[in-house]
Amino acid sequence: MKERLVILGGGESGVGTAILAKKKGFEVFVSDFGKIKEKYKQVLINNEIEWEDEGHSEEKILFADVVMKSPGIPDKAPIVKKLHEKGVKVISEIEFAAKFTKATIVGITGSNGKTTTASLTYELLKYGGLNVALGGNIGKSFAEQVSEEKYENFVLELSSFQLDGIETFSPHIAVLTNLSPDHLDRYDYKYENYIASKFRITMNQTSQDYFIYDADDVEIIKWLSQNPIKAQPLPFSVKKELNQGAFKRNNEIIIKINNKEFNMPIATIGIQGEHNVKNAMAASTIATLLRIRKQTIRESLEGFQGVEHRLEKVLKIHNVMYINDSKATNVNATYFALDSMENPTVWIVGGVDKGNDYSELLPLVNEKVKAIICLGVDNQKIINAFGNVVETIIETDSMAMAVQVAYKLVENNNTVLLSPACASFDLFENYEDRGRQFKEAVRNL
């Protein structure tokens, strides 16, 4: 009797899992409450996988032996509740696919910096000659890449939602870049639930594994002091010297593992800013553990130009720089962006608020922002938060309009920054769509 796997969600992770499951002899059924994109439908049809969209057939779903739920579907969804009531196991793509590979897995999570750290780590390992793939919350589905059976190493960017759906998944190297309140709407508005979710990345690790984390992060240190972990800890810090791990000394990054030291001048790193120094520390620690040569690490860090939609310089028009930071979907990410602004800034902000507290941005907004352009369906919270600090606040409901308004407001040597601090689903398909629309609107000025 074939094991029956039902997949909820027909996107990248759902279809990737379907391909792997079919190859491994499962009976597979894909069900999406929304509409499955044409390119994914074609893949399902070509692989002769049964699917449905625009609704769930309960009798087909509840009959599953195991269910893979796409990260975007909350546990509160009626169909997921019914599965839990029936005692059907609901897991994530990461949990399902990891069982079918013997590759070395590097798992990277955190509220911010995980995409940059994962992309940088991938570049370091690839440049160092390892057979490596990048997946998880970024790029091509992890499950689909496992089905190709050609990679010896995986670098996975992992969201808290993907970690919620694991039981036995255990990366050889786990990274927690930082913690700040995010997605609280999915965690009963309790920060501690979200934090516990992130730390699931190390729950199955053993003393043969490594846990890399930000030693300057108060919440991380607090959690670790109360919850012992089995993995070998490798902290990084820009504030203090460490006996083991990565730290800053005289404008250099020092990586110290098992009494061996490696140094790298900060000034030569391709991506600047203190948060990027931390991302570079985490990535270099991973590369060092996987025996990449020091010179190779230095060269890769010098050449790395960053990730699309993360403080990406788009164009300079009449001495005004337009910057796309659409990937900033929470307050902490926007904090980094505003902090790195050197000129008076017109700030485009807004979208779907996930329980944001804007108060930590007030000093930066006061110092750097000359005008705010709201880009969302409901902007009241932003207006309330910054109305007393910024004279000009304008509401818009399309990217083209937001960019046009910005163009009219700027003067010589200003910066226009799209850094929404919110999710994008009210007006856009996702943050990539939002970022691309911004770039297009800027190029059309």
Automatic annotation (TrEMBL):
Catalytic activity: UDP-N-acetyl-alpha-D-muramoyl-L-alanine + D-glutamate + ATP = UDP-N-acetyl-alpha-D-muramoyl-L-alanyl-D-glutamate + ADP + phosphate + H(+)
Pathway: Cell wall biogenesis; peptidoglycan biosynthesis
KW ATP-binding (keyword) present: yes
E.C. no: 6.3.2.9
Keyword check for ATP-binding: yes
Span of domain Mur ligase central: 108-286
Domain Mur ligase C-terminal positions: 309-422
Taxonomy of the source species: Bacteria, Pseudomonadati, Bacteroidota, Flavobacteriia, Flavobacteriales
Cellular component annotations (GO), alphabetically ordered: cytoplasm
Source species: Aequorivita sublithincola (strain DSM 14238 / LMG 21431 / ACAM 643 / 9-3)
Protein's name in the database: UDP-N-acetylmuramoylalanine--D-glutamate ligase
GO-annotated molecular function: ATP binding; UDP-N-acetylmuramoylalanine-D-glutamate ligase activity
One matching Pfam family: MurD_N
Principal subcellular localisation of the protein: cytoplasm
Entry's Gene Ontology BP terms: cell division; cell wall organization; peptidoglycan biosynthetic process; regulation of cell shape
Family recorded in the similarity comment: Belongs to the MurCDEF family.
Amino-acid positions noted as binding ATP in the UniProt annotation, renumbered to this chain: G110, S111, N112, G113, K114, T115, T116
Superkingdom of origin organism: Bacteria
Xref: Gene3D superfamilies: Mur ligase, C-terminal domain, Mur-like, catalytic domain, NAD(P)-binding Rossmann-like Domain
Keywords linked to the UniProt accession: ATP-binding, Cell cycle, Cell division, Cell shape, Cell wall biogenesis/degradation, Cytoplasm, Ligase, Nucleotide-binding, Peptidoglycan synthesis
Function summary: Cell wall formation. Catalyzes the addition of glutamate to the nucleotide precursor UDP-N-acetylmuramoyl-L-alanine (UMA).
Location within or outside the cell: Cytoplasm
